[in-house]
Amino acid sequence: MKQTRLIDLVPHAVLILGVLVFAYPIYVTLIGSTWDSGTIGRGGLPLWPGGEAAANYAQAWAGEAGERAMYTPVRTMMLNSLVMALCIALGKIAISILSAYAVAFFRFPLRMAFFWLIFITLMLPVEVRIIPTYKVVADLGLIDTYAGLTIPLIASATATLLFRQFFLTIPDELLEAAKIDGAGPVRFFFDVVLPLSRTNIAALFVILFIYGWNQYLWPLLVTGSRDMETIVTGITKMIGTGESANDWHLIMATTVLAMLPPVVVVVLMQRWFVKGLVDSEK
């Protein structure tokens, strides 16, 4: 009995160790954002909160200059990241659900060929096609615009595949009943398919919002103006000026602020997110 109890404690110990490993850097960042740059620069960062939190966060949020360098205000970078993440998440869901609806419920020539063409794009991520994509965006005059930031990342083969697989589980009897009631394709989509897909949409929204928020390479290429910097590229540029020229207290405050929107989205949509991932029977 005693041995069984010890074995039962192992998973909990592993989980606690994993949480500590992941949480400690976040805790250090949070604590670092409450101290002045001199304390952090001397390498003796305490593990308890300091008294500079309000000043550091206010300076990071609205200020354009630290003690050693010029920065883009966090409010500007977070607005750009928020627009980018929302456009990518909502755009991907809208395009994917419509394309999956067409592939799953309509019969037209080359239907499966179009589906496999969409599926093949899974093997062509942004990093692979980034040079031709940048050329097209530059030729269209979309550099340093929200359209240039978001449109090349909106199409999603993964979301299309997931929606199609879910639509195939909708019983044919439901489709036949809708036809008997006089429902056309548009009404069937809005009255039946869309309500049944809400948990999948919620789960995909969380995943795609975080995907859009964390984008680094594409925003770094397609934006040159400080007014269009996203929060991820902004933090990288704040760090990239060398050890002696870094305002670590502002960098840590900016990093903490950058983590808030994804955390808020996950917390608010947690129930729908989990349900969308685990529910297969509708």
Automatic annotation (TrEMBL):
One of its GO terms (biological process) is transmembrane transport. The gene is ugpE. GO terms for cellular component: plasma membrane. Part of the ABC transporter complex UgpBAEC involved in sn-glycerol-3-phosphate (G3P) import. Probably responsible for the translocation of the substrate across the membrane. The complex is composed of two ATP-binding proteins (UgpC), two transmembrane proteins (UgpA and UgpE) and a solute-binding protein (UgpB). It holds the Pfam family BPD_transp_1. Belongs to the binding-protein-dependent transport system permease family. It is a multi-pass membrane protein. It is found in: Cell inner membrane; Cell membrane. Residues 78-269 form the ABC transmembrane type-1 domain. InterPro entries: MetI-like (IPR000515), MetI-like_sf (IPR035906). It comes from the Bacteria. The chain crosses the membrane at residues 12-35, 82-106, 113-134, 146-167, 188-213, 248-269. Keywords: Cell inner membrane, Cell membrane, Membrane, Transmembrane, Transmembrane helix, Transport. This is sn-glycerol-3-phosphate transport system permease protein UgpE.
